[in-house]
């Protein structure tokens, strides 16, 4: 029988706004614990390097994926991947130097460099003043030696948009990863939506969040984050949940459970995509 089991680490952390070096130090200290315990995939929260609340200074903390050497974050993470032979997932501010715009971008790095990236499509609140929207739902195939896992990326607020997760599930994703800075006031949505996305699509959900609080540069109000990073199996069961402000959550995943759950409740198989397309076209015509 094929062994398609992997161990993953989610890094829940309290980022400090504008302290890239300090945030990277905390992130990698926790990540090291994960890889030393056998993790081959490490996931960091949304905008973990700069902090979420750098709204008026996004340009200072943005990275260009075409120029790794100019980014403290990307070069540091690449060195980590090379040293430990692991995949790293996170979300940072991306600068598109061609169009001179910024995105909230999730990425996957390996020891060979950039595997791929996803630009956040559904922006929360004042994020529309900061970032352009992405336009695609890519799925990435990761080699774990002997088998491959298909991974889809979403970011934070998008955990409540079932359509994005469904597209990734239909494209064959086994794991959906949500780097997040999700607010504590909406913790109920975080807990329910993350389990729903896993069950609907027969996938593992890795939902990793910021903790504690930061001060918005737009409103000067405190933003409290929900923490509660969690790993959820294809049946919608929570396998592990983080409790501390800075914590590494380590868990083994058996990707064979995805196929079993999709057979037990064949949502993806029975879905009539053509009807969804017709409904969307009809809605678009009315708007």
In short:
This protein has 287 residues and is of the alpha/beta class. Helix content is 30%, strand content 30%. The chain has a single domain, classed as Carbon-nitrogen hydrolase (Nitrilase/N-carbamoyl-D-aminoacid amidohydrolase, 4-Layer Sandwich).
List keywords for this structure.
alpha/beta, single chain, Nitrilase/N-carbamoyl-D-aminoacid amidohydrolase, six-stranded mixed beta sheet, 287 residues, 30% strand
The sequence of SSEs as H and E is EHEHHEEEEEHEHEEEEEEHHH
User: Which CATH class is shown?
Assistant: Alpha Beta
Number of helices: 8
CATH topology: Nitrilase/N-carbamoyl-D-aminoacid amidohydrolase
Spatial sequence of strands, sheet with the most strands:
5-4-3-2-1-14
Q: Sketch the major β-sheet.
A: 6 strands, mixed
Give a structural overview.
The protein has 8 helices and 14 strands. It has one domain: Nitrilase/N-carbamoyl-D-aminoacid amidohydrolase (4-Layer Sandwich), CATH 3.60.110. Helix 1 packs parallel to helix 3 (72-84) and helix 4 (162-170) runs parallel beside helix 5. With 287 residues, the chain is of the alpha/beta class. The N and C termini lie far apart (52 Å). The chain has helices at 20-36, 58-61, 72-84, 162-170, 187-201, 256-264, 267-270, 273-286, and strands at 5-12, 41-46, 87-96, 101-110, 113-119, 139-143, 148-153, 175-180, 204-209, 213-215, 222-224, 230-232, 238-241, 247-254.
């Amino acid at each position: 029988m094929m062994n398609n089991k992997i161990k993953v680490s989610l890094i829940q952390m309290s980022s400090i706004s504008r302290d890239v070096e300090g945030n990277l130090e905390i992130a990698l200290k926790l990540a090291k614990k994960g890889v030393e315990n056998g993790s081959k995939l490490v996931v960091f929260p949304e905008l973990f390097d700069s902090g979420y609340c750098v709204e008026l200074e996004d340009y200072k903390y943005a990275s260009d994926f075409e120029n790794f050497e100019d980014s403290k974050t990307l070069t540091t993470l690449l060195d980590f991947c090379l040293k430990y032979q692991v995949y790293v997932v996170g979300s940072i501010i991306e600068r598109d130097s061609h169009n001179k715009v910024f995105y909230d971008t999730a990425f996957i790095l390996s020891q060979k460099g950039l595997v791929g990236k996803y630009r956040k499509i559904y922006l929360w609140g004042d994020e529309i003043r900061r970032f352009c929207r992405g336009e695609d739902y890519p799925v990435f195939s990761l080699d774990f030696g002997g088998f491959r896992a298909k991974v889809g990326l979403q970011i934070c607020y998008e955990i409540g948009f079932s359509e994005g997760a469904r597209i990734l599930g239909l494209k064959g994703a086994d794991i959906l990863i949500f780097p997040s800075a999700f607010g504590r006031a909406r913790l109920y949505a975080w807990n329910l939506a993350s389990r729903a996305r896993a069950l609907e699509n027969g996938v593992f959900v890795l939902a990793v969040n910021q903790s504690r609080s930061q001060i918005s540069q737009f409103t000067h109000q405190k933003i409290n984050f929900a923490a509660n990073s969690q790993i959820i199996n294809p049946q919608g069961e929570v396998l592990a949940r983080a409790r501390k402000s800075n914590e590494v959550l380590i868990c083994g995943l058996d990707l064979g459970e995805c196929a079993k759950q999709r057979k037990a409740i064949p949502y993806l198989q029975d879905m009539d995509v053509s009807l969804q397309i017709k409904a969307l076209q009809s809605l678009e015509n009315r708007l």
